[in-house]
Design a protein that fits this description.
232 residues, two-stranded antiparallel ribbon, elongated
């Protein structure tokens, strides 16, 4: 016997589709901002977290209706599964935090993943206006407050430079290039990576009149240097 639409997909399938799509859109916006800044957790990661948490909320709301209707002694607690999502998402956020000596990177991305999980839960329960407003607030915080901070600290801020090079590269040669640009070095950290490469993290004072592109070009011309980039 052929099954009708409700029997095959359930009474709330269209509603679930809408909420999953909204979770994808909102979490994707935040993930896109992280992706543009080359962070470890970007577009796809944030989308998966947002959709996954939305799915867990939808499961909590609609996944057990048949059991509740069939058994009088079954009690409904829609907050139980979401509470585990909120506490369990920490392992994914912790994976984006990288500690090199006294330098900690990835805290903002870890926080954005945790916030996206919350967005997914909010969308899953149907609080669309709250989810959209929160997404706008998060994006404003990530984009404009970062630029405002740079403007506020102009002339006295610092910059973290990552140089990927072969072990034969001498630190003194990098220091010589930076001194030629009158750059003050605050801290140097060396981390071994794969394929006999090492990452050299150098935090410097960033003056407002510093030509960063010219500085990077000068360092990239050094022998054994494979890559150079500015990190947050």
């Amino acid at each position: 016997m052929a099954m009708n639409f409700d029997q095959l997909f359930g009474d709330h399938f269209l509603l679930i589709m809408v909420r999953v799509f909204i979770a994808l859109l909102l979490s994707g916006l935040i993930g896109f901002e992280r992706e543009m800044k080359n962070h470890s957790a970007g577009f796809r990661t944030h989308i998966l977290v947002g959709i996954g948490s939305c799915l867990m909320m939808l499961l909590s709301l609609y996944g057990f209706e048949a059991y509740i209707d069939a058994y009088d002694n079954v009690r409904f607690d829609p907050a139980r599964i979401p509470s585990y999502v909120i506490s369990g998402i920490g392992f994914l956020g912790a994976g984006t935090i990288i500690v090199y000596g006294g330098t900690i990177r990835g805290l903002t991305t870890a926080a954005s993943i945790w916030a996206v999980a919350g967005l997914g839960l909010v969308v899953g329960i149907g609080m669309y206006a709250t989810a959209v407003f929160t997404t706008l607030v998060i994006l404003l915080s990530l984009i404009f407050l970062n630029n405002f901070e740079r403007l506020f600290t102009r002339g006295r801020s610092s910059m973290l430079i990552e140089i990927v090079a072969l072990p034969d590269l001498q630190i003194s040669s990098i220091v010589s290039v930076m001194e030629s640009y009158h750059v003050t070095i605050k801290r140097v950290e060396i981390v071994k990576v794969e394929n006999d490469l090492r990452s050299i993290f150098i935090r410097v004072h960033q003056d407002s009149d510093l030509d960063r592109m010219s500085l990077f070009e000068g360092i990239s011309k050094l022998k054994f240097v494979k890559n150079i980039a500015e990190r947050n």
